[in-house]
Amino acid sequence: MSTEKSFANGSAAPGPVPEGCIRLYSMRFCPFAHRTRLVLSAKGIKHDTININLKDKPDWFLEKNPLGLVPTLETTAGEVIYESPITCDYLDEVYPQNKLLPSSPYAKAQQKMMLEHFSKITPYFYKIPMGRRNGEDVSGLTAELKEKFAKLNEDLVNKKTKFFGGDSITMIDYMMWPWFDRLEMFELKHCLDSTPELKKWAERMSEDPAVKATTHSVDTYKAFTKTYINGKPDYDYGL
Questions:
Q1: Predicted confidence (pLDDT) per residue in 58-86, tens digit
Q2: Which domains does the chain have, with CATH numbers?
Q3: In angstroms, rounded to a whole number, what is the distance separating the alpha carbons of residues 50 and 35?
Q4: Which residue numbers delimit the GST N-terminal domain (predicted)?
Q5: What is the pLDDT of residue 41?
Q6: 121: which strand partners?
Q7: Alpha carbons 68 and 172: distance in angstroms, whole number
Q8: Active-site annotation holder among 21, 30, 88, 191
């Protein structure tokens, strides 16, 4: 079973996970769930997707994941895995095709450390637009974000590689991408103007088949965000 429309409280629970398949509980516009969708697509993993209404979650979903978060994975054996980096690492380990994490323990640790650093950047993507909407001066926050981007740019310059883990896309690129995919929606694309290597990285990423398969148009992102800001998120927008 695979659905686009979201399941809300009161909806019947989906049936068992089909044999030879893994199930993703997701939300179409969630950047964290986007990470897992990218990995599923990049690795060509057979899966079905159940979208969840995050404002009115079904009880049966909360029984599977008491935190009520997406992404959540469920196997045919009823095993449940959640938190985006954990779901992605799990998929890379269980499905050996198209490995995304490096085999070297040190290189793997480097990617995880970089992900920790990136987790300190993601709040800026929300704070700046929110501050702007509230009529606040966000120039200081914008300058800070540009500094963070400058460090990422420097990392690419020093490595002399096309992507953050080498000359092909690896896990860290997919872990970072959902927020860059939404740069135009956040009206932050200009923050890449003084980071040419990072800008080239974003352009290369946008050509990746998994990226193309899991994105929405800027207009769709903006329209959903408008419903979210108004307090009535339309998780089924555009369907």
A1: 999 999 999 999 999 999 999 999 999 99
A2: 22-99+216-229 (3.40.30.10), 105-207 (1.20.1050.10)
A3: 16
A4: 20-99
A5: 98
A6: none
A7: 25
A8: 30
Q: 30 an active-site residue?
A: yes
Dihedral (Cα; 221, 223, 226, 227), 10-degree rounding = -110
Q: Is 104 exposed, middle or buried (0-12, 13-18, 19+ CB in 10 A)?
A: exposed
| pTM beyond cutoff 0.85 | yes
- Nearest-angstrom CA–CA distance, 205 and 218: 16
Q: Check whether the bond before 71 is cis (ω within 30° of 0).
A: yes
β-partners of residue 82 are 72
